[in-house]
Design goal:
Oligomer: single chain
Low-confidence stretches: none
CATH topology: Porin
Helix content: 10-25%
CATH superfamily: Acyl-CoA thioesterase, double hotdog domain
Distance between the termini: 21 Å
Mean pLDDT: 90
Number of strands: 14
Radius of gyration: 20 Å
Number of domains: 1
Shape: globular
Strand content: 25-35%
């Protein structure tokens, strides 16, 4: 069991076929980063392993930065050794398209399409905030004034993650006004001074949220949130800006998250979640609120996810296999 920065380590393996177009990275899925009582790794953690392998593959190239990742989860990833098989699909002047599969026991568990390029910091916002057309920072309570709330019990890694939910957003879910969308947000933080926000950890954090299934009454979803498993079928992450270095303006291991979730449909309570991940001005309960702090933060990524609502007994059965 290890902190996230160690749990996502992978290493390149030499190919047995000198003519192969594949690059191989290997690692072992850490037993702590799972959900519920199954042997299945958390979806965001799985994607972070793939992203980390591709980052190492692209290191030192003209296209070192992930710009977009789209993953389809075909089978559960076990707490065991895995292999990431990477193939360059297309290499252009500005972008590189990469296919990467996470494989266990010669079975493809997750398949991804990634776009890499260069993601340098912008000297100024592309849209002037004064114009009224720029996206405004969605959270209003500074992390120094935020109150920690309980992380999901079924997160086996809950000792390594903490959050402070935005009570204003939660209160809006009792009366949606016909929108059909639940909203959630707050500050999410990796526990441990050695932890850092990285492109790989952003993929993990994109799956550490509440969704429509947990935010609305069971009378709406038809499923008790306490006996619920939410398997993901797809998860896409677009990286909007480089991660700033830790400073007085930006925290090292804390992010702000805002999302809306809904569009529930058959079969099995399919629903979609769209979220934004922003920098944070300080750690939770740390720092001091300064005037204009919202204007100095950066949107790091946006993500979309499709999940099902399934009885937790299915997840528990996997844990007994």
């Amino acid at each position: 069991m290890a902190p996230l920065r160690d749990a996502i380590r992978v290493q390149e393996r030499a190919s047995n076929d000198p003519e192969s177009s594949l690059t191989y990275y290997t690692g072992e899925a850490d037993p702590e980063w799972v959900v519920g009582s199954s042997h299945s790794a958390q979806i965001g953690y799985i994607l972070s392993l793939i992203v980390q392998a591709c980052i190492q593959k692209q290191a030192g190239s003209a296209h070192p930065d992930p710009l977009h990742v789209s993953a389809h989860f075909l089978q559960a990833t076990k707490r065991a050794e895995f292999e990431v098989r990477i193939r360059i699909l297309k290499r252009g002047k500005r972008f590189v398209n990469i296919l990467a599969d996470l494989v266990q026991e010669q079975q493809t568990r997750t398949t991804t399409h990634l776009i890499f390029g260069a993601n340098p910091p912008s000297p100024r916002p592309l849209i002037d905030p004064a114009s009224g057309y720029a996206r405004r920072y969605p959270l209003r309570v500074h992390p120094s004034n935020a109150v920690l709330t309980k992380v999901f019990q079924f997160f086996r890694f809950r000792q390594r993650l903490r959050w402070a939910e935005d009570p204003g957003l939660l209160s809006r879910n009792s009366a949606m006004g016909g929108s059909g969308l639940a909203r959630w947000g707050g500050w999410v933080e990796l526990v441990g001074e050695e932890e850092r926000i990285t492109p790989a950890s952003l993929a993990f954090l994109a799956d550490c949220v509440q969704t429509f299934a947990t935010l609305v009454p069971s009378s709406v979803t038809g499923v008790n949130p306490r006996s619920l498993w939410l398997p993901s079928l797809t998860l896409s992450v677009e990286y909007k800006a480089p991660i700033p270095a830790p400073s007085a303006l930006h925290a090292a291991r804390t992010v702000g998250v805002y999302l809306f979730s809904g569009y529930m449909s058959a079969p099995q309570g399919r629903h979609d979640t769209c979220l934004e991940i922003w920098t944070a001005p300080s750690g939770i309960g740390e720092g001091k609120e300064a005037d204009g702090w919202r204007d100095t933060q950066v949107c790091l990524a946006v993500a979309t996810q499709m999940q099902l609502m399934v009885s937790a007994t299915v997840n528990e059965a996997k844990g007994k296999m």
